[in-house]
Design a protein that fits this description.
The chain starts with a helix and ends with a helix. It contains twelve helices and ten strands. The longest helix is centred in the N-terminal third of the chain and has 17 residues. By secondary structure, it is of the alpha/beta class. This is Ribosomal RNA small subunit methyltransferase I.
Length: 308
């Protein structure tokens, strides 16, 4: 019997390595409550064993994308059975949330999984978690994959302090204002961005933060075509200017080094310099005096001259 058990365990491991059925998950009775399950951001095998246990055991499965959740369970051999799978996303509204809370109030365990990564990080799960807390029911987290942490791990930028800013606004003006709000944060900045807007975002980062800051663009993390591009913001803006890219993107920017100079101070300095100097000389003098990129100061000087 012992030899047979060992053989069975060995076969499970071999099958898992070959891509067959995974090592068995544990199905058990869960107490009533809301279970947030972190799911893979790319490679399906990144999910934790505890995450699989919860998906196998929960009475109700809620998901930002039900197709993704079902596919993940199928890959890992988790039978759905007759358990309900309920879509919960930004457009679900209060009715779906109330339905899920009713299940929990009736003694059911509800597992919620975002489309990818950790629930509540750029994800609609916040209101659901808040509703559960307000109702006094348990909220349990099964930690795991997160694009923020995965990007920080490989970026090579300081991780002692970081600030996750999420997705910037779509419109250029709003995006620049959004970026400017975080210019003085004393830690690494982390943004999510879509491939269609990455060129515009990098350009706005250069405009508002300066081109000299070290930065990293991570694309398709944990997937087959994973790419990590490092350099200054100016270098990355140039590198992506003509590229057509696909996949999920995380942008990381190093903290400001030294005192940040406001646009108003730069313009005041330029006005004084332009009283006695040519435009090019004034831009060079102000750039060196304030420690700003010469290109930024020169462009500002051109704009002031045109404004006259």
């Amino acid at each position: 019997m012992i030899q047979g058990a060992r053989l069975s365990a060995c076969l499970q491991i071999v099958n898992a390595v070959k891509g067959g059925n995974p090592v068995n998950f544990e199905k058990k009775q869960l107490s009533a409550g809301l279970y947030f399950v972190a799911t893979p951001i790319g490679t399906a095998r990144d999910i934790t064993l505890r995450g699989l246990d919860i998906l196998a055991s929960a009475d109700v499965i809620a998901a930002e994308d039900t197709r993704t959740a079902k596919r993940l369970m199928e890959i890992h051999g988790i039978p759905l059975g007759d358990r309900p799978v309920i879509a919960y996303h930004d457009h679900s509204g209060d009715m779906v949330r109330a339905r899920l809370m009713k299940y929990i109030a009736g003694g059911k365990s509800v597992a919620y999984a975002s489309e990818a990564g950790t629930p509540l990080v750029a994800d609609p799960g916040y209101a659901l978690g808040r509703a559960a807390i307000d109702a006094g029911v348990p909220v349990i987290g099964a930690p795991g994959p997160s694009a923020v942490i995965a990007a920080l791990t490989v970026a090579g930028l300081p991780t002692d302090r970081f600030f996750f800013a999420g997705f910037p606004p779509n419109a250029k003006g709003a995006r620049r204002k959004f970026i400017e709000e975080y210019a003085d944060v004393p830690g690494t900045l982390v943004f999510y961005e879509s491939p269609k807007r990455i060129q515009g975002m990098l350009g706005d980062l250069v405009q508002k933060l300066g081109g000299e800051r070290q930065a990293v663009v991570c694309r398709e993390l944990t997937k087959r075509f994973e790419e990590v591009s490092r350099g200054t913001l100016a270098e990355l803006a140039d590198a992506f200017a003509e590229r057509s890219v696909k996949g999920e993107i995380v942008v990381l920017v190093d903290r400001a080094r030294g005192v940040r100079v406001s646009d108003q101070l730069m313009e005041d300095a330029l006005r004084e310099a332009l009283k006695t100097m040519r435009l090019k000389d004034a831009a060079t003098t102000v750039s060196e005096a304030l420690g700003l990129p010469r290109r930024k100061v020169y462009q500002a000087a051109l704009g002031m001259e045109k404004g006259k």
